[in-house]
Every structure is written in structure tokens, then in C-alpha cells.
Amino acid sequence: MNAEQVLQTIKAEKISFLDFWFVDIFGELHNVGMPSYAIDENSFVNGLEKLDASSIVGFKAVNHSDMILMPDPTSFKILPPDYDPGNRRNARIFCDLYDGSTDESSRYNRDSRGIAHKATKKLKEFGFTHTNWGPEIEFFVFDTINVYPSPYAATQSYGGSGYSIESKESPWAKGNVSTAINLKEGYYPSQPKDTLEGFRKDVCDDLYNFFGIRIEAEHHEVATSGQCEINLEYDEMIQMADHVIGVKNLVKVKAKRKNKVATFMPKPIFGDNASAMHTHQSLWNDKSNVMYDKDDEQAQMSQTGRYYIGGILSHASALCAISNPTTNSYKRLVPGFEAPVNVCWGLGNRSAAIRVPMYNRNQEKSKRIEYRVPDPTANIYLLEAALLLAGLDGIKNKIDPGDPIEENIYKLSSEKKREYKIGSLPVSLKGALDSLSSDSKFLEEVFTKDFLDVYSELKYKEYVAFAQTPTAWEVSMYADA
């Protein structure tokens, strides 16, 4: 849609409020609503003088906080009824952030969506027109989470802390004989064990009917207690990032309406699989898939595609600061739970950081890579931008990824890994941030040093805060009885 069509639709569909969406530097969604009668052509020309940027973490100081929200009419969508218990008709629109004016030169350098836009412009320098992206979004839906003795105590350990998860699928709950799923046994169960099939289908229906997001598949994932996955049909970079924000928000809203708790925290359950956001990606020049080479007998992967893989693998440790941006992320990146910890690539090999799916040969449209490291706490705009820049750096510098690894990497000895030159991902958020501090040049033209400095500073503070907090497990193990 353009601005005129948006205004016509608001009137024709009797939209009461238009919600203006944007994300902070960590990908958290923020919203300001305006009644439809307060919106006119000027709202799309000069933007909205509605943002106090000092109130958004990582944005601006209080003495320089006025910013402009510029609505993107192409992102206009009518919201599902779950968004308003008052039965009003609402719509949403994504906004870009500007500093002082709406000239392109005033685009705010800490606007995640703006960073993704800027990254797409780098494609033209390499002769590409666009990229396609297809994330697999995993999450948990619990009946409830109990924090003891209070939510405050969970971050202030001297008050005592702990939590319990309640789910009809959990093997530790009483009376769940027909719905209990053991740890690591939740992949593709049928009803009645899969208690969330209807929930996922409701989400998928709304994603398609209201947001126009096409779904490839939905299913229960490996973990117990309501681990879900929704696969989105591929789309271009900005559209897909908008889709992911919409999916995550809708899941939370619909769970709340059903008195459940949805979480995109990677590892909420000790001893079970965690949630990932495996990200499929491909490079295109108009209708030609640049990653595809029908004459390559091994993977039908072009040399350009191999260099793209090499770029991502060479920057994998630094990328973790963006693809796995929480302390909890590194409770997932451990051996034994199907999460990648080894920096290498393979053909259909799910133990590698990058796999080239091998379902069908001679299918140019589907030739792609899947980066298996990210988790759903990543800011999708930053993630896509960073992966693209790393891949383009690989193409620019002709970084060869070596031969694909065919073996189960989880079972390789340390000696064998050294022989194959397989590296390891960071084991903590601090390790990832340290890697980013020494390997950020490939990002700085798009992310800017200012953004990376602010992002890293806030994430280091997060790491220190959690590193200093004793856990209930530590107390039980080491405190004198």
C-alpha cells in the first residue's frame, strides 16, 4: 500500500486506532496508538512527532531526545481481534526512526530497521538484487511460570529465588498420564500429547489472514512442556524481519488471552532441548539464485555461495553477540542438545553451524544455506544485516570455508576436530562480546561504531549483572547445610 491507500482502508474498514510499531536496539517491540481521525496525509510526509527517545533503552540522552516516527505504508496491516478486548478494529504499521528531519541523511543510526535497510543497499555493490530469508521460529508455551518467593527475588538472590514451570505436557506434573511428554521426546507427537496443536493453528490462521504471512509448517518441537515451531515461507529481508516481529508478538498476545505464558527464552528447562531460530538465506540477481550451480556435483553450491559460507564461519564468534545475545543463549549452545557448537559447514548435517539442505537436487529456487546458531532472542533486523554483511565479506575476500563435514561432529574427538580445522563458538555472552570487539570491521559501514559501542556496553552490563547473581542451584550445591 501507499499512504493514500492506507488512509482509504482505514476509512473503509472503520479502523478505530492505528498502532505505530518500532523496535529498540535489542528487538523489543514498542508501540504508540493514535485514533484514526488524528491521522492524515501529513503523518506520512513529515512523520509523527511522538518519540521521546530518552525513554527507550540505548537510544538518546534526555537533553537531545526528540525524534520522528516515519510510518512505512507498505507495512500496514489490520490486527486480529485478540489485540483489543474492547472489540475495536485496530491496525498496525511499522515506523522508521529519524533524528531532526525526514531526510534520508537523518535516519537514526540506532534504528534496527534502518540498519537492515542500509545493509540491503550493500547488495548492489556485489551485483545482487535481493536476498531471501526463512527463519524457523521456536518457542515455549507454558500453562504458567511460578517465581519464588517473588519476581523481584529472581534477580536479587539474597531474597531467595527459584521458579517452577507448569504444563499439561510436563512429565513432572500430576495427573498428566495421557499428555505427558518426556524430556527430548516431543518431536512431532500427535494428539492428545500435543496439547498446543490448536493454538499453533490459530496463530498460523491469523498470521495469514491478517498479516499476509505465509506459513510453511507448524509443529511441536523436541522438548517437553509445549515447545513449538512455526516455519515461515521465505521473503525478502525487511519484509521477513517485520514478519518475525509480528509472529513473536502475536504468539505472546494469543497466549496471554488463553491465560498461558509464551516465552522465546532459549533454555527455560534444564536437561532438555532449547529453542533456536535457524535462519535460511539465499542470494539473488533478479530471478537467478546466485548460490545455485547445477554443475557442482557435491552440493550444487556455487563458488559465490561457498565464499558466503566462508564469510559467516570466519565471523561466527563475533556474530554470536548478535545471533545469541543473552546470558541464557549460552545455556543452549552446549553439546548434547542438538545445538551447534562447532564452526563448520556440512551437507544436510545438523551437527554443523551451517548446513546446505539436500532434500532435492536440481532445484534452483530452493538452494540455500541454513545458519543453525541463532536463537529467538536475537533482534531479527540486526541478525539478518549481520549475517548478510559477514557473507558479503566472505565473497569480497574470497574466504573459502573448506570441505563440508559429512560426519556427526558431536562425536568427533578433539584431535579429529583439529585435523578438520573445526573451531568452537563462544561459551558465554562475554566471550561473544569480546569477539565482537576484536572483529567488527565487517559491520561498521552499516552498523556504525557508535551503535556497536552502545550495544556492547549494555550487553556487557547484562552479563555482569547475571554473572554476579548466585543461582538457587549454586546455593544447593555449595552452601553449608
Automatic annotation (TrEMBL):
Q: Which residues carry this modification: O-AMP-tyrosine?
A: Y410
**Pfam families registered for this protein in UniProt:** Gln-synt_C, Gln-synt_N
Q: Provide the coiled-coil residue spans.
A: none
Q: Where in the cell is it found?
A: Cytoplasm
Q: Where does L-glutamate bind?
A: N273, A274, R332, E338, R350, R372
- Molecular function in Gene Ontology: ATP binding; glutamine synthetase activity; metal ion binding
Q: Does the keyword Phosphoprotein apply?
A: yes
Cofactor(s), names only, from the UniProt record:
Mg(2+)
The GS catalytic domain extends over: 112-481
User: InterPro entries given for it?
Assistant: Gln_synt_N, Gln_synt_N_sf, Gln_synth/guanido_kin_cat_dom, Gln_synth_cat_dom, Gln_synth_gly_rich_site, Gln_synth_I
- Which terms under GO biological process does the entry name? biogenic amine metabolic process; glutamine biosynthetic process; nitrogen utilization
Looking at the record, the residues that make up the GS beta-grasp domain are 13-102
Record keyword NADP present: no
Q: Which reaction does it catalyse?
A: L-glutamate + NH4(+) + ATP = L-glutamine + ADP + phosphate + H(+)
Give the note describing cofactor binding and stoichiometry: Binds 2 Mg(2+) ions per subunit.
Residue sites binding Mg(2+) per the record = E136, E138, E221, E229, H278, E370
Q: What class of enzyme is it?
A: ligase
UniProt record similarity statement: Belongs to the glutamine synthetase family.
Q: Mind telling me what this protein is named? A: Glutamine synthetase
